[in-house]
Amino acid sequence: MSRAGHPTAVDVAEQLDYYLVFPNLRARERALPPEGIVVEEFVLRADGTTSALDSAGWTAGGTWWSAAAFSRGLREDARLRARVTPVGRAAAQTAYRLLGGGDLLAEPQLRRHFLDRLDLPAAAPLNLVPAQATADRRIYRVLLAGELAAPGLAALRSGWRMQPFDRSDDAAQRIAGRTRRTLDGQTVTWTLRRIGVDLAWAVDLATDRPDDTSAHTLAPLLCRLRTEARGQGLIPVTVERLR
User: Fold this and answer.
1) Can you name the residues that pair with 55 across neighbouring β-strands?
2) Cα separation of 27 and 80, whole Å?
3) Is the pLDDT of residue 159 over 80?
4) What is the mean pLDDT of the chain?
5) CB-CB contact of 218 with 26 (8 Å)
6) Please, are residues 23 and 35 in contact by the beta-carbon 8 Å criterion?
7) pLDDT tens across 92-122, in order?
8) 204 with 140: CB under 8 angstroms?
9) Which of 183, 185, 206, 203 is CA-nearest to residue 194?
10) Could you tell me the pLDDT band of residue 1, with boundaries at 50, 70 and 90?
11) Which stretch of DSSP H or E encloses residue 192?
């Protein structure tokens, strides 16, 4: 995992998200071959928040198909998520070749299969504004679906250098970690927390700058937080600005 507190420029346009799709949970748990892959890409605003999601799927022995409905279901249906594993391009390429697809197309060519765009709501589901939200702070939320196993939680805490959190200060006991950085002269804090009644997580990022001048710093950081959470098995749902 990269050191998220020291983000470098991220060329989001050259980074797609890949998922292996298995016929059932048992096949996934036994590491049997998947039945296909899904490729996704968030459409981002200048500040790193998401406005839409492009996607395409491919099944062994078939052709590429529109995955907009699949991508929506992946974020709403725990049974569907149980059949899916987030992976990098190398693992997707291996699966694609194993299933008879040959060499996976380069990312510019893969985007040609994005046929139906899934528009994201202006306000994310489970829009619970954190207590630290005030008029003079920008608050962003990376909303994530899925279950975060203990090793994944430990990896995020370690990679993000989160300090131990005092549970006595958290009545709902939903905060899993918090960290603070100084980036480009501004104080940036992000908190990892459980959210909602189902399996969902959020990374709430706060900056002490009340204007949009920090977008060039926050956009790549938001992308990195989303990517690293996805690397631990969570499914990114949206990135929105709460304040």
Assistant:
1) 40
2) 13
3) yes
4) 85
5) no
6) yes
7) 999 999 999 999 999 999 999 999 999 987 6
8) yes
9) 203
10) very low
11) strand 186-194
